[in-house]
Structure formats: C-alpha cells, structure tokens
Task: structure prediction
Amino acid sequence: MLQLFGFDRIGVVLGDIYFVDPNPAKGQEGPERGVRLEVRMLTPGELTGSIYSSRPITIAEPVWRVDLLESADGPPGSLNRAHHHPKMSDWEPHRRVFDRDLSSDPVGWLGGKLADLEGLLAGAGIDVDAGLAADADKLRACVPEVQQAVSGMLDKVKAGELGTAPDDQVTSARLSWL
Result:
C-alpha cells in the first residue's frame, strides 16, 4: 500500500515494507517488517498537451526517513527495530538513529517531527525558503491525517495484512510502491 500527502514542493510518502538486509549489523539479522515514511521533494513537470492536460508530478529525492520496523520473527507490534535517518543524500540513507521515544510512541513521535518540517529540512541541509515554509504550514495542518494513515497501516502490518514476505522468496525486499 502506498499513500502520499502532497503539497507544493514537499510530499510525505508512506508504505508497508518487508525487508531482509543482506549485510546486517549485529543484532539486526533476519527479516524486518513495518511501515516506511519519507519526506520527499516534489517536482512539477511541464504540461505535455493543451492547457487542460494533466501536469506530471515527480516524487523526487527523499530528505528524511523513518522506518517503523520490527523483527519479522518477533511479536507483531513490537517495533523493536524502529529508527530514523535524519539525513539522506543521493537517494541513500545515512546511519540509522534509534530513539526510545520513537519505539514507545511512534505515531506521537512522528507527529512531532512532521510538525517541525523546518527542523527536518535544516537537519538535512536544505535551506527553507518561503515556498518550503508555506509547505511546512500546510503539513502541520494535516499532521493528524498523516498520523491516522500511519496508525492504520501499522495496524494492518500487525494483523499480517501488510508488510508480508514476497511470494517468490527470491526478492529480498518488498516495498509496496516499487
């Protein structure tokens, strides 16, 4: 499942994930399941037809990511591997950052982070201009909707409806939007 909350230049993208790291860090062995949320840049394209044609919109590079993950071999809902990546570059996440508050109250923690989009962007090395500040205000207004979507998706992962292993067992990761 994929959900997108889009503003003028910022999008919040969330989807379920089942992931097996081929080179796991100690204590991170085995498959992980959960919900991934990324703050991404949005890029509008040029009209390709008449003035009535639909405008292409590209969901571009991520600037921040939170992985609400748990060991797939453990109890559903544990979120024992929840972490975030405060910085990303060239499509790659920097190191995993674990936060006790993230695991104990993931939806509340996430709401606080999204309500401070300016802080997330500054941490990612992005200058906040008037357009991004306007997007930050719009995102703050819909944080409860994003939190509701994340909660619903986490419930479906816990119930075994989302974040499941791929059928072919050949693919080591499945993101619903890939």
